[in-house]
Amino acid sequence: MLLLQAVFLPIILAPLIYFIGLRIGKNVGWLVFLILFYCTSLLLYSGFSSPEHLESYNWEPIGEFGLFLDGLSFPFAALIYILSTVIAMYSIPYMAHRIKEDLHSKKAISDTINRKISLYYALYLVYAAGMLGTVLATNLIQFYIFFELMLIPSFFLIAEFGYGERQKISLMYFLWTHVGAIFLLGGILTIGFFGGSFNFFDLNESGLPSSLRVWVGIAISVGLLTKLAAAGLHVWLPYAHAESPTPISALLSPAMIGIGAYAFLRIFLFILPSIYPTIVFAISLWGLLTMIYGGLMAYAQDDLKRLLAYSSVSQMGYIIFGMGSLYYLGVTGSVFHYVSHGTGKALLFMAAGSIIMQTGGVRSIKKLGGLGSKLPITGIAAMIGFLAIVGVPPTSGFQSEWMIFAGSFAGALETGSTGKLILTAIALAGTPITAGYALLTIRKVFFGELPSEFKNIKDPSFHITIPLLFLSALTLIIGIYPSVITDNLVPLLQNVFGGIG
Amino acid sequence: MSTEINYLIPWLVFAIPILGALLMPIVARIGEKIRDYYAIFITLISAILCASMLPIALAGETFHHQVMWISALDITAGVLADPLSILMSNIVGWLSFSIMVYSMGYMKGENNMTRYWFLMVFFIGSMQLIIFSDNFLQLFFGWEGVGLCSYGLISFWNKDHKKDYVGTVGKKAWGIPLAYSPTHAGSKAFLMTRVGDASFLIGILTLFYFSGTFDFMELSKSHTWAVELAKSGLLIPVALFIFGGAIGKSAQFPLQEWLPDAMAGPTSVSALIHAATMVKAGVFLIARIGPIFVTAVENISLIMPFFEFVAWIGAITAFLAASQAMVSNELKKVLAYSTVSQIGFMMLAFGVAGLTSNFIVGYVAGFFHLTSHAIFKASLFMGAGAIIHQTHTKYLNEMGGLRKQMRLTFIAMTIGAASLAGIPLLSGFWSKDAILASILGVESSFTLIALYGLASITAIMTAFYSFRMIGMIFFGKKSRHLSKLEKSSGKHIHEAPVLMYAPYVILAILTLALGFTGPIYEGFLANSLGHHLEYAVGMEIHEHVFSINLIAVSTSILAVLVGCGSGYLFYINGKLNPIETVKNIPGLLTLQKFFVNRWYINSLYYIVFINGSLKLSQLIHKHVEVGILDKLNTVVPKFSIILSTLGGKFDKYIVDGTATRIANFNILISRNVRKIQTGITEQYVFFFALGIILLTLLLFG
Fold first, then answer.
1. Which of B294, B293, B283 is nearest to B318 (CA)?
2. Is residue B606 domain-resident?
3. Of the segments A266-275, B307-316, B686-695, which one has the largest average pLDDT value?
4. Residue B234 has pLDDT above 70, yes or no
5. B53 and B131 part of one domain
6. Do B570 and B640 belong to one domain?
């Protein structure tokens, strides 16, 4: 029942949180924090106690309702809940600030504030549980339900608490993800229809007519690459992630979109292993394009959050690139990079949030400067966050990036593909692009002359600095001791690739 | 004859500074004085531990200790204490200690000293990590650690005040400014070395596929990887890609442009990181992997192109940087160019090692020069710091006539500069001579003549700029700037405080000592490094006996005579006026401008890579991102409404109620697009909650 609790406790308690929140206001965030903390502990306990953990419940008429934690789903699941937990704490002052700012009045009626913050936290819990359910699902229908379950609350969160033209943007976000979802659904239903089951363990691609395989592969890839915001399918992301309330950006950008990678690997490695080798080159190429395109676009941004959003596009390119490596080490790197980018980008968005809060809503990089001396903890966290996405040791970003590229080289040499070898070399040679915008941003925001209007600002309260320090420590710990991720993941993937090769 | 040490010692050499640095903010709370002493104390302990391992180096033995690191991939972490690493660690450890002491004086009264000490100590730990790593992956941790600290320390004065700029503000070459703020210079350093690191990673990751290991010892034990690599034609590319990392870190051509601007940091930082230690990491890397490649191939000719490339890069860099050192007007920049140039000499030596019949000759010459350069250059930099501190200027033409007022500094710096120039019986003379002699062993006559020629010309230029520097600081008339300074403050310029001059005077004495014992030290190196290469790496080593090579000696003496002589006439004795001379001889002015503008390489990089990619990014953003892709945002909603309606029908036809409900929900949302904009979110949330309850009931009902 451990995993069942972890997934459903937040959902069941969400209405309760809403009503408690109406009474006690923003401190309901602590309750949410505790709930998620408890669920995260359950999850981590399950993950570390045995390499595989399966809970299965009867679910008429679809089959089995299972929750499955293995080397592949564990890194995703753990990151989703760890981030959700710390961001619940981070949200307490941030959302209070955001709601007040939005109501345009200093002495806003506390009822309105309480109602809004309760709504936020209720949706937040469902959103977190939805993400977790997606990566633990054992059958395709279940997967799709949870996929929706995370989309809908996030849609409301953007529509209600976002910045700018939030209604329009939330709708855009909702529709785009659904375009992806429908491709995915089409693919999934086709597999299920011919495979005779929706259950991952029973599904067999052999039932699928070979004429359909390519189409199923393409449909699922396009669906998931939309989620992953691959170049060309990414236009919704900068809007959604930049205009979300910042704690939600910190969850959307690294944790949620990366779920596309999980689904891709689960489906292609375990269910469609014969299609996988035929699409890897295209995937790698697309990944490389995304990497470079997203990175270049980041240079053209002046809005701090928009820059981070484009950086997410670019980082998804790394993950996609690893998925196309056709080698266990590259895929390990992809999964690992989900975690690295997750902690790194969450740190960056949270640091951006801290800046936005403390400067009274300034997001334009041009207007910022010299903040390092005023916001030292925010500065250090942002630096570590950037190092993680640039891939500098001792952050975990280095571990994931070397694995992605080593895996890609190995895949290329194994199959004797010169094209792939060159792609990988180009991809590695393109890594300074990330370093470039990272350094540029650090310089413009934290160094140089401090604008006079920021003379009196300081680091925000512990609600924000503790999560920042915690995630900074986490990325360093995983970077120095990567075995926490690789121990269960590598043997699993070696096994799978033994079957494919 | 086995020399036992505790297996923890090499680990502690880097663990103490790294962990100690992390405690710095806490120690700083106790008190500022305690923090300062704490920082120096950690450095001292680390250095003492290095010294305690010297017996292993003397015996030419190897100590190796490993632990499991990433078990799933069978990757270990470990320390490798052999003569190479132990000697290197002592150079780094003790120079660091002396520069840390100097920092106490030099950085007195600065703010943010906790950050300074943190970065310095963390740097020392990372550098020792590079040195003692027994595999590429762990080495890379140290490699990036030093890069980060270097970035942080170059950008130390991160307010970017105009006075902290490096270069002359306002001067441009091809429209590209030649002056940079500290944070710009720091970012530049990080980014350029990052380019080298990308290359480094390409190399080691490909190597990892063929060998399955990052471990140096394993690589030198098993040779199948080299055979496989050679068969697929990747042996030389892989070696060169790895060398790319060294090019970046050691500021070799074509990635040399970051180092001169790194002088924006405090001088103590320049002395430690950008002269004595970090920039030698690239050289150290070649010293580490060169022998592995040589022993791994069946026939040395397979790997020769790699060594030839290394030698050429070294020689070209040495020449290129020396030419710029001759014309620079900034004291620290002269020293920076000189560092780049001298590292070029070291690379040249390590490259030549693989081109001669006896590997050890070039190898020892390279390491000898590394030692002597580290000592005298650290001394020169610290002296320069003291002068800049006292004269409030970084420009050579604003100094002059200081030899009486700063007597000790004058003597110490003259010893350093003379050693740099290669004046006989000083350490630089012996080591440079060893390099020249080693080139003479090159088998191909074209390469021999070309490399020897380049090295000799560079030696002349080196002698010239060394004397130019000394002349412009200490001789001639006192500049107008100095007279004004003395008048306005009412005080005469005087010697630096003891905390500052003690370290560089001691290093100057060491330079003398190494000069007197040059041949002995060379013999010692040949013995212990040779013993190690022969028994631990498995290389075939012919005994290398120290001997004076007449051709090399006469070349270097001739170079000194020409270089120092002209430097003396122009800048010390004042018989010739340098400005007039440049004006009078046709072509010289153009040449000078060419050198001052850094051969336009810097400008070219900015135009192509920095401005080019920024422009590209703007263009793509305007025409593709906004111009084309954003349009999708209007198409997709329309398209998706059609699709979701179709999808709903598709679902109804195939699956049961659950999926239908979801699809219906989609339709509900898409049909009610307008209503949402009225902002009554709670209503929708209510429907949503209802849906969830329904689902839960379905699930457990």
1. B283
2. no
3. B307-316
4. yes
5. yes
6. no
